[in-house]
Write a structure and sequence with these properties.
With 241 residues, the chain is an alpha+beta fold. The chain has 2 domains: 33 residues; 199 residues, no CATH class. The protein is built from 4 helices and 14 strands. A hairpin with a 2-residue loop joins strand 5 and strand 6. The radius of gyration is 23 Å and the shape is globular.
């Protein structure tokens, strides 16, 4: 092969390699530009657990929402999750009486847990039986740090209450959660997807501990993944009257 032919073959191969590298780089940058594929910076400022008022590790954090408060409230309403009542003497008495009498209490209160020293901003639930002893529920905490698109992060803990009984730790009356917390996370994720208002992705190995106990002494196990729900609808502040 002549030197000129050798150079021509080399240039063609170099051009093909350069084109391949450019295509790979473009694909990676395009994927990173998708809002759902970015890791929200607020995730670096929180741990992986909620805590009780006395500082004991509570329910694991297993779900997150990226969007405004109004978007979160609309999503949960459309997904048929009801906001929980605040804890008062009246609501506490009602949940106890309705549990014994097996009467429904759709928006029964949930106890307070804390992330970064702050009580949950919202709690939502779905009844799972004819009384408030069994229910699907999730707490959400807003993390103030915004992402590059100006969106806040809401970190959540979704668990299934399977019964009412005495805490294994302080012997107070409490709900006992089901150990398989991933099932509850996945149910909420499916309900959110069904609204058509979100995209979703996963963060693997968010939980380093794949099993343990919550603040009431109930055991749990998990695959360690964090489900991230991203709103794709306009926020109320961006909508014109």
């Amino acid at each position: 092969m002549s030197p000129s032919s050798t150079r021509e073959v080399f240039h063609r191969r170099f051009a093909r390699c350069a084109l391949l590298v450019a295509l790979i780089a473009f694909s990676l940058s395009a994927a990173a530009a998708q809002p759902g594929n970015r890791r929200h910076p607020a995730l670096d400022s929180i741990g992986a657990r909620s805590f009780t008022a006395t500082g004991m590790p509570g329910d694991p954090l297993n779900i997150a929402f990226i969007g405004s408060e109004s978007q979160l409230l609309r999503l949960m309403a459309d997904a048929h999750w009801e906001p929980a009542d605040p804890i008062t003497l009246r609501s506490s008495m009602r949940i106890a009486i309705d549990s014994v009498a097996r009467r429904p209490y759709v928006d029964a209160p949930v106890s307070s847990l804390y992330v970064n020293g702050k009580k949950q901003d919202f709690a939502f639930e779905q009844p799972a039986a004819g009384n408030p002893s069994k229910r699907h529920h999730v707490r959400f905490w807003r993390v103030d740090l915004l992402d590059a698109l100006g969106r806040p992060l809401w970190i959540g803990a979704a668990t299934y209450d399977m019964s009412v009984g005495l805490s294994h730790v302080n012997h107070h009356v409490t709900h006992h959660i089901a150990a398989d917390i991933d099932s509850e996370r996945d149910k909420l994720l499916d309900d959110a997807r069904a609204t058509g208002r979100v995209t979703t992705h996963w963060i693997d190995d968010f939980q380093s501990a794949r099993s343990g106990h919550n603040g009431g002494g109930d055991p749990f196990h998990t695959d360690g993944r964090l489900a991230v729900i991203v709103s794709v609808e306009p926020s109320a502040s961006s909508q014109t009257p």
